Amino acid sequence: MEDIAAYFRKGDRLAQHLGIELLSVEQGSAQARMAVRDQHLNSLGTVHGGAIFALADYAFAAACNSYGTVAVAINVSISYVQAVTGGTLYADALETSRNPRLATYTVRVTDEPGQLVAIFQGMAYRKRDPLPM
Hints:
Blueprint: H1 2-11, H2 13-18, E1 20-26, E2 29-35, H3 49-64, E3 69-80, E4 88-98, E5 102-110, E6 116-130
Antiparallel strand pairs: 1-2, 2-4, 3-6, 4-5, 5-6
């Protein structure tokens, strides 16, 4: 799993730009975090939905590619349930179903005290190609 984690840590330039860190990857799951910085805030002073989405999507990508073969998103949705103004956000991606071609994941985004901030649902198309590590 460490080679897959290293692949995502090194290769995802948007995550690097946003300060998103991959904490762990196991088959079918991944955890990431993002310390909220000024650049993550919208005009209302809360964390921009795009920043929250990027955090959830990064954990989703790591989880669905955790088997070492290419998996790409074909449908995602997110529900924002609580505004956040600072601190650190965490994304916990968990596989809910998987077959040879499709897999589904739920990503829970929480704040430091563990309060739910957003729920992300994603479906990935699983290709046969190995990850280009």
